[in-house]
Amino acid sequence: MSDLTIIKRIGSDLKIGKFSTEKRSQFFSRIVYSALSMWIRISTLDEDIFQQNFDKVGVSKVHILNRCQPFLENMIEIYPEIMNWFYPADNDEHPISLIRERLYSGGELVDVGFNTDIALPYYEECKVDERIRLVRGIQSGDFQKVSGLVQVVTTQENSDSDSDTKMRNAIGFYGLQDKLANQHLHDYLKLIKWNRRKESKAQIFNKYSSNVFSNSWEDECKLKNSDISMYRSPFYDRGNKDFGFIKKMNGSIYTCQINDYLINQFEIRRFMYGLKSEANNPVKAKFKKHKEVQLVELNLFNSLPLKEEKILLLLGWPIKNINDKHNLIFDLSIWVFVVRILSNLNITLEEVI
């Protein structure tokens, strides 16, 4: 069996296609990335999961690392061009641990009792549309089609069974609210208490700027009367996480600090998407469909709230390397769900032909 036969066989089993302009190293990396997610799932059990019953369910994180490490090492030895994808210069976490945590955060792995062990969840499907389902757990020994780290199932058209009717949609399945970012913003602003600010030294988010988020913070306050935006500490790059809302009223500045939990979850990004939408200056993203292999390439220019970021990293393949959160590839069958996620952040999608 040749070296190319090995990777192509794995790609065929997982139904992963290559588009014409994709580099070989990227294509091979995507295959190994998805294969590792399946290997991690299987490694949570010590025997044939379809034949045996167990008194003990679940394994340690170290066990998963030890079981999966040889596969990754062998793939890198056979295909050395994937090395930099899995071990980029900015990588500070083992790729297997990173994939395992992405699976865990998406509900693909679960805690076991009061132990630190993890296991597969009960088999469950959610609805993307009338034919497409996303899967948690494993039901049979057959490989399913994958998109990134998730399994995708295509059902018979126009299924209307009772179980299908009760099935959760993908938004609820992944713990998202079906609400626009600007609505989140309005709801939050209704509850806050404004305080007059004596110290005016802060960086202000220019919601009218055409720059990316990171380049839209300005030292000079240019707020119009009654206008609302966000502020942050000028010492943000030194670890000072003082973020909040700011408004100008009758020549005075008022602020309300945002709590640490929302800051740590990068919910400030959701507010930023909402602010730009309200200013008729919505954030844009680009996508390109590769219909010959049923894939979609997405290019984001701003980071997402942590919840949405984790879900997209579960649903798709990072392009540049395993840490790439702005450029992703998705199977076309679940693109409608990705569009829903991005639209709820008031992101305007532009197709590249």
Condensed summary:
The protein has 353 residues and is of the alpha+beta class. Among the domains are: 3-119, no CATH class; 181-278, no CATH class. The chain contains 12 helices and 17 strands.
Structure in words:
- Among the domains are: about 5-120, no CATH class; about 180-280, no CATH class.
- The protein is elongated, with a radius of gyration of 23 Å.
- The protein has twelve helices and 17 strands.
- It has helices at about 5-15, 25-45, 60-80, 85, 95-105, 160-165, 170-175, 180-190, 260-265, 270-280, 305-315, 335-345, and strands at about 110, 120, 125, 130-135, 145, 150-155, 195, 205, 215-220, 230, 245-250, 250-255, 285-290, 295-300, 315-320, 325-330, 350.
- With about 350 residues, the chain is an alpha+beta fold.
- Mean pLDDT is about 90; it is low at about 50-55.
- The two termini are about 40 Å apart.
- The chain has a six-stranded antiparallel beta sheet, covered by helices on one side. A five-stranded mixed beta sheet has the order 15-16-14-13-17.
- The longest helix has 20 residues, at about 25-45.
- Helix 2 (about 25-45) runs antiparallel to helix 3, helix 2 (about 25-45) packs across helix 5 and helix 8 (about 180-190) packs across helix 10.
